[in-house]
Amino acid sequence: xxxxxxxxxxxxxxxxxxxxxxxxxxxxxxxxxxxxxxxxxxxxxxxxxxxxxxxxxxxxxxxxxxxxxxxxxxxxxxxxxxxxxxxxxxxxxxxxxxxxxxxxxxxxxxx
Amino acid sequence: xxxxxxxxxxxxxxxxxxxxxxxxxxxxxxxxxxxxxxxxxxxxxxxxxxxxxxxxxxxxxxxxxxxxxxxxxxxxxxxxxxxxxxxxxxxxxxxxxxxxxxxxxxxxxxxxxxx
Lengths: 111, 115
Prior knowledge:
A: four-stranded antiparallel beta sheet, 0% helix, globular
């Protein structure tokens, strides 16, 4: 079945550092891919998405590119801020099936 | 008002008690979901409902039951709470006609502690 694997955390970075959180997926077809963010004490919010190969999703300085050849959707940000501290979830959804989530990666950014 | 509202936000209950977590939505979505979040385990699906008459078990439904009272309301019950059901619970909704791939809309969660 469909599945998502994302890098284990926690990840701790200094402010202004470069961020990469790896995400790979397994799917039988051509899923849509998502990154969700969960800030402390809150629910998950959609951060960005991509619906087909080579699409790049972007939001709030974060980017991820849908790479079909490597079945990956890595999340990147060039310069993280303390306010980016959160848990990040990679997810996929194939057609109208249920969404599959990764285990989440906790990011802590220190001043 | 939030699109997906969960009540209560926090609850402490005793072992053996019955407890209900409620979820209501204003998105007009047909599909609703209950997830459980434990540290390091990500989100695990408990139950989901595609419409009022269609309810399905997820990967960890044992010890839980649900009720879809209306399109907008989906409740999760713990018939006899036990300590290992201590977790953060999330309700989510989705639109099966999601042509723009908006994904799911989540509530803010209910933190449940069973003592």
